[in-house]
From TrEMBL:
This is Chitooligosaccharide deacetylase. Gene3D superfamilies: Glycoside hydrolase/deacetylase (3.20.20.370). Coiled coil: none annotated. Residues 34-207 form the NodB homology domain. It comes from the Bacteria. PANTHER family: GLYCOSYL TRANSFERASE-RELATED, SECRETED PROTEIN. Pfam families: Polysacc_deac_1.
């Protein structure tokens, strides 16, 4: 469905710098190319069609996995054409929580993912998109390059926009591993095609 516009896995741009011990917050990628980014959270439903859909579409998503959902399903997630990133151990709302609590949630998840998938994740997404200064400091102390949120989301087979009525170059799109995976992923693919955009790997632009 989509032809790779460059060799995936090669760095196209770098994440903003960590300043004052806090990771940068990224909700949109600055690019003059017609690129869009799909991210998939949690891992609660290991849908059997996910791998086939990704391969057939030529799309390489970024997965932000919780320990509580990903644990015990290493074989499933390893087979997906995707890069795995971090989304805490237990999916709490981090905002307002003490630094040590946040660090345990964030570093613990990173340690688990590094052990199960052989590579430590470089990007972090806070549950519900909620964060504070402690979150950004904890993520930096756990070795992350950036805290990643989103500008559009897919729910129940519909793409929902934070502003406007279409996807724009550099948009980061959120979806989840749910029973509606096929409908949601297909809705994203169709919307990207309609808006003249090619999905490319997020980590290539936060290298």
């Amino acid at each position: 469905m989509f032809e790779p516009p460059y060799p995936y896995g090669t760095v196209q741009a770098h994440a903003p710098a960590t300043v004052d011990g806090m990771v940068p917050v990224v909700t949109h990628i600055q690019t003059d190319k017609p690129y869009v980014f799909i991210t998939i959270d949690d891992g609660a439903v290991q849908h059997p069609k996910a791998r086939e859909l990704m391969i057939n579409a030529g799309v390489w998503p970024s997965l932000f996995l919780n320990t509580k959902y990903a644990e015990g399903h290493k074989d499933y997630f390893k087979e997906l054409p995707a890069t795995i990133h971090s989304h805490t151990t237990n999916h709490p709302n981090l905002q307002g929580k003490p630094f040590e609590f946040q660090k345990n949630e964030i570093c613990g998840n990173a340690d688990f993912l590094a052990h199960d998938y052989g590579k430590r994740p470089t990007l972090f997404r806070p549950p519900f998109g909620n964060y504070d200064t402690n979150t950004r400091k904890a993520a930096a102390s756990c070795g992350f390059k950036a805290l990643v949120n989103w500008t559009a989301a897919v729910n129940d087979g519909r793409v929902q926009f934070q502003s406007g009525d279409k996807l724009k170059p550099g948009d980061i799109v959120l979806m989840h591993f749910r029973t509606t995976f096929v409908e949601d992923f297909t809705a994203f693919l169709n919307r990207a095609k309609q808006d003249g955009l090619t999905p490319v790997p997020l980590e290539d632009f936060l290298g």
